[in-house]
């Protein structure tokens, strides 16, 4: 499937040019931002690791083998791409055990930056954000047009699409989810089931967001909207928003769309009608999600980009730094700038 089918229209016009993404792993760097004060004691060993050319599951398996700990007792905050240099947290549950000797693991592709005990295991999504440093090479674009576009997205954000990597190569995950839905069945493997349900949910959300981007309302509060804060799961109806509340303009408070599941929509009026219409257009997936026991949830439509800076190391290279909330995709930012050509494949996600 084409990217346009999986995501939706761009908010800020046609791309300003084209560039190569991830010509080398060092061109894509991600660091998890963890706002948890570690206690220094407890049965869980937390590790901040830097990896290169490895995906998250590979590192977890390496840790399990080297420590003699079951893989189910290895936890991580989020999934990170293989073709990148990433710094991310893992935890090992070691009740009554000393810290294992993991020195044999450390090499040019995997190293330990910090190790500390804590009373609790690391939970998925425990980090507060992901910080990116991305270098786009073989750039063919007008710097003046790029600078104008970058200033706009820094001030107004971008649509918070789930990136194409959520849907697998050429949309393969979505095709698999649809095939299971057609049989009214679910994969027996827990990991596969979770991945395909998430894929279907993400697709319906993207379709709803695409409607709002197409009519220009993705970054505006409309009657019937359900609003949520950038870094909080709390939400409330737009009718309760004071007319002079500055938080929408400050990119701290945003309209949302549903992550489909069972139960009543939290939006109302025309917005609830729009969300229900999109679900009816993809009724097979919507009913499959509801029958799986997932409850309705919400996701912000607008993605604020914190600390965005950029410069040009050379005339054909653009280097960007920015921070995104967990669960959001760097793809959503980059696709508003240029057409991306990936030499290495893989995702750009700051997911979970």
Protein architecture, described:
Helix 4 (172-182) packs across helix 5 (190-214). This protein has two domains: 3-21 and 134-303, TruD, insertion domain (Pseudouridine synthase); 36-126, TruD, catalytic domain (Pseudouridine synthase), CATH 3.30.2350.20. The strands form four sheets. Strands 1, 2, 3, 4, 5, 6, 7, 14, 15 and 17 form a ten-stranded mixed sheet that branches. A four-stranded antiparallel sheet has the order 10-9-11-12, with helices on one face. It has helices spanning 3-6, 56-67, 143-156, 172-182, 190-214, 269-281, 283-291, 330-334, and strands at residues 17-21, 28-33, 44-52, 74-76, 85-93, 110-118, 129-141, 158-159, 226-229, 235-237, 253-259, 297-300, 302-303, 306-314, 317-325, 328-329, 339-342, 349-350. Helix content is 26%, strand content 29%. The longest helix is centred in the middle third of the chain and has 25 residues, at 190-214. It is of the alpha+beta class and 352 residues long. The chain is built from eight helices and 18 strands.
């Amino acid at each position: 499937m084409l990217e346009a089918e999986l995501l939706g229209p761009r908010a800020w016009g046609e791309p300003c040019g084209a560039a190569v993404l991830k010509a080398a792993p060092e061109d894509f760097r991600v660091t998890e931002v963890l706002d948890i004060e570690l206690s220094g004691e407890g049965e869980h060993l937390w590790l901040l690791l830097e990896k290169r050319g490895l995906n998250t599951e590979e590192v977890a398996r390496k840790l399990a083998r080297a420590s003699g700990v079951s893989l189910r007792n290895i936890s991580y905050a989020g999934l990170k791409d293989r073709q990148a240099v990433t710094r991310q947290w893992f935890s090992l549950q070691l009740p009554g055990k000393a810290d294992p000797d993991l020195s044999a693991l450390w090499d040019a592709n995997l190293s330990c930056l910090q190790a500390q005990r804590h009373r609790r295991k690391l939970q998925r999504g425990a980090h507060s954000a992901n910080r990116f440093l991305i270098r786009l090479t073989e750039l063919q674009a007008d710097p003046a047009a790029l600078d104008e576009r970058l200033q706009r997205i820094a001030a107004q954000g971008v649509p918070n699409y789930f990136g194409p990597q959520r849907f697998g190569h050429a949309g393969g995950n979505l095709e698999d989810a649809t095939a299971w839905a057609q049989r009214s069945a679910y994969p027996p493997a827990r990991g596969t089931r979770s991945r395909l349900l998430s894929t279907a949910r993400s697709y319906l959300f993207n379709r709803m967001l695409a409607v709002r981007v197409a009519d220009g309302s993705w970054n505006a509060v409309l009657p019937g909207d359900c609003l949520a804060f950038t870094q909080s799961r709390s939400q409330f109806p737009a009718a309760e928003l004071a007319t002079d509340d500055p938080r929408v303009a400050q990119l701290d408070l945003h309209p949302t769309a549903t992550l489909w599941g069972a139960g009543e929509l939290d939006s109302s009026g025309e917005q609830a009608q729009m969300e229900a219409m999109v679900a009816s257009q993809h009724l097979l997936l919507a009913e499959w999600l509801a029958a799986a026991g997932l409850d309705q949830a919400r996701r912000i439509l607008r993605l604020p980009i914190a600390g965005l800076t950029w410069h040009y190391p050379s005339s054909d290279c653009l280097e960007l730094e920015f921070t995104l909330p967990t669960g959001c995709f760097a793809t959503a930012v980059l696709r508003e700038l240029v057409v991306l050509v990936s030499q290495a494949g893989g995702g750009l996600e700051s997911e979970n």
